[in-house]
Amino acid sequence: MTVSIDMGTTRTGEKALMNLEELLATRLLVQGNSGSGKSHLLRRLLEQSAPWVQQAVIDPEGDFVTLADVFGHVVVDASAHTEAALQQIAGKVRQHRVSVVLNLENLETELQMRRAAAFLGGLFDMDRDHWYPLLVVVDEAQMFAPAAAGDVADEARKVSLGAMTNLMCRGRKRGLAGVIATQRLAKLAKNVAAEASNFLMGRTFLDIDMSRAADLLGMERRQAEMFRDLDRGHFIALGPALSRRPLSLTIGPVETGTRGGGPKLLPLPANPPADARALILKIDAHPARLPERRPLTPTTRDILDSVDRALPAGTAANDSGAPVEDGAPPVAAVVETPPSRLDELLREVLSDPDAAFRNEAVLYQDFLVRCRLRGVNGRMLDLGAFRRRLAVARAGVDPAACSDDPDWQRAQTAADALPEDLRAIYLLLARAARDGAPCPSDLAIARARGSRSPRRGRGLLDYLEGQGAIGIREDAYGLRVVSLTALDWETAPGTPEDAEAGQGDLFGLG
User: Fold this and answer.
1) C-alpha–C-alpha distance, residues 429 and 427, integer Å
2) Is 477 inside a domain boundary?
């Protein structure tokens, strides 16, 4: 079945049709300066295709929430959910084939990037059984896939760019069809823009953007000047879903509207100057409160600077964060921190719902900051030792048991022979075998590796089996049993499916 949606009219007055099936296979890039009609174009595309395909809209300004009133989209307020929760919500969106709008308007830029990346990751990591066609529309894509580092933290930029790259480069086989809109092509990461095969180019004025738009449309450089003369709502189209040759079209009307104010002139109020002065200089006893906005996540440097400012005059903070008098030896040289205190702070770091899915370097910085705030010498653990301790903690093993129990020391030695990113998984299996517990589920194994994908967990088990570290078999009831060859331990039978999903654990919604 071929479905064509009406995007408007061409210069000759004919309908400008877009092949929806071809769009799902080849993706779309929309470019135009502010006021060129990009959001109007996206709204037209969403409205026309809503009866035919499931949709997910990444909406940084809250412009598309009005789709819910007419087309039944579910609006998800990103500020009300953690990253882990948004990833689970995205999985249920694909599972139940519900069209959604992810509203990011109440968040600062860095948090918008993190929440959007978590949601896109949830769409991407679904099992093959749920790879239904899904149109993923990202407005202001240059924010989520920037071409260069900006004012946000590098970690936020990397995770957001990685999610956008997965959407545009690897999403097609998973049923994800990316539609991205940007104000400037020069601000958008090239590896993200390059994966689109369909283009709609609107009004733009900067030479570099006009030149790139002309190159993408296969036009000569001297023709690039035409992009300055385009009216609002007029675009040049090219691509297998639109036209094999550059085609000028005008976007048609829409049913829903934006909540933002338009640039329309209104007459000024006819208040006399005296009344106007009284109005603006009157101080209300109970002023209306502005909506609260979440602050940017403070950087490590910001937190450390605030600690230093809080110290009494004439003192300074050493690497452990404890104040010392000028000329005195560092506290770490005379005070030894007990390992139990370090384990306590490590558990505090891992209590963050999103901590399980952050890389070790970021968690290490968080650990050092907490140590400094508590006057603990966190430098007793370098990054390598921290990773070793982190693997034990992620496996749910008591660190004291690793040092006192000879069997656990054997398990730790066997884990140390594996790559760092697999040690937590091996110790998780060892803990289950030692306690006589059922084999962990695929999702539990994936979590120990910092992933939310059960398929990833199963793949890691297969890899360990291929390396000879474990053996996998099924019992008479089809349940999975894992044996650890170096230890001669074996787990109890367990199901690969996650039996604790939705029970409100550390990684759940509750």
Assistant:
1) 5
2) no
Q: Is residue 286 part of a domain?
A: no
In a 13 Å sphere around the CA of 442, the CA atoms on its Cβ side amount to 14
Q: Would residue 368 count as lying in a domain?
A: no
Q: How far apart are CA 448 and CA 393, in angstroms?
A: 9
In which domain, by residue range, is 30 found?
A: 4-251
What is the spatial distance between Cα 31 and Cα 199, in angstroms, rounded to a whole number? 8
Residue 178 pLDDT more than 90?
A: yes
- Find the CATH number of the domain harbouring 93: 3.40.50.300
In angstroms, rounded to a whole number, what is the distance separating the alpha carbons of residues 144 and 62?
16
Say whether pLDDT at 328 is over 60.
no
| SS3 per-residue string spanning 371-428 | HHHCCCCHHHCCHHHHHHHHHHHHCCCCHHHHHHCHHHHHHHHHHHCCCHHHHHHHHH
Q: How many domains does the chain have?
A: 1
Helix H or strand E encompassing 444 = helix 442-448
pTM: 0.58
pLDDT of 124 over the 80 cut: yes
Q: Name every residue whose Cβ is closer than 8 Å to that of residue 194 and which is 6 or more positions away in sequence.
A: none
H or E element, residue 48: helix 38-49
Going by the DSSP 8-state scheme, the letter that residue 41 receives in this structure is H
